[in-house]
Amino acid sequence: MVNYSVSSDSLHVPQDKLHKKGVFDSIRRDFIVAFSQWDFDPLALTNPFSKDKDKCSSSSVHIWQGCEDKVVPMELQRFVSQKLPWVKYHEVTQGGHLLVYDKDTCELILRSLLLGEEEHSHFLYKPCDASAPS
User: Fold this and answer.
1) Three-class DSSP category at 80
2) Three-class HEC string of 10-50
3) Domain boundaries, given as residue ranges, for the chain
4) What is the dihedral of CA 93, 110, 116, 118, to 10 degrees?
5) CA distance 1 to 89
6) What is the pLDDT of residues 10-53, one digit of tens each?
7) Considering only CA atoms, which of 30, 7, 16 is closest in space to residue 101?
8) Which residues contact 34 (CB under 8 A, 6 or more apart)?
9) What's the pLDDT tens digit per position in 57-91?
10) Neighbours of 10 (CB within 10 A)
C-alpha cells in the first residue's frame, strides 16, 4: 500500500484552510477520482459544445493546471489537452493543486471565464517549461 503525505506547502494552500472540511473533502475526492477505475475512457470524449444548430456554441472546457501540483501531474494534463484539442489548457506557474484558493489566481480565472479578460493573465498562463504544448 502506498502512503501519501500531503502538506499545505505541497498544495499551495495556507495551513488553516487545509483543515477546513470543504478543502479536506475536495482533496479526498480528487484522490478518489485520480486512483479509481473509471467506467469510460476520458480520451474518447467528444466536444460537448461542438457547433450544432440546436446547441449554444459559445461554451468551452478549460483546464487550469498548477505547475507545482503534487496531486495531478502536469504531464498528464498536457497529454489530455493534446489528445482533446477542444480543451483550452492553461498552466499556472506558481500554482499548486488548490490554486483556486489563491485569491488573485481565482479572480483572474473567473475574469477569463466570465468576462473574456486575458490581458492580465499573462503572468499566470506561461508554460512551466520548454516542453509545454504551444
Assistant:
1) helix
2) HHCCCHHHHCCHHHHHHHHHHHHHHCCCCCCCHHHCCCCCC
3) 10-115
4) -20
5) 33
6) 455 566 665 666 777 888 888 888 888 889 998 999 998 877 65
7) 16
8) 71, 72
9) 578 889 999 988 888 888 999 999 999 999 999 88
10) 14
Q: Which residues contact 69 (CB under 8 A, 6 or more apart)?
A: 95, 96, 97, 99
C-alpha 93: how far from chain center: 12
pTM above 0.85, yes or no: no
Question: Which single residue is written with the C-alpha cell 489566481?
Answer: 105
Contact (Cβ atoms closer than 8 angstroms) between residue 10 and residue 70: yes
For the record, the C-alpha cell of 59 comes out as 461554451
d(CA 15, CA 100): 15
Find all residues with CB under 8 Å of 113, minimum gap 6, and list them: 62
First-to-last alpha carbon distance for the chain, in angstroms, is 38
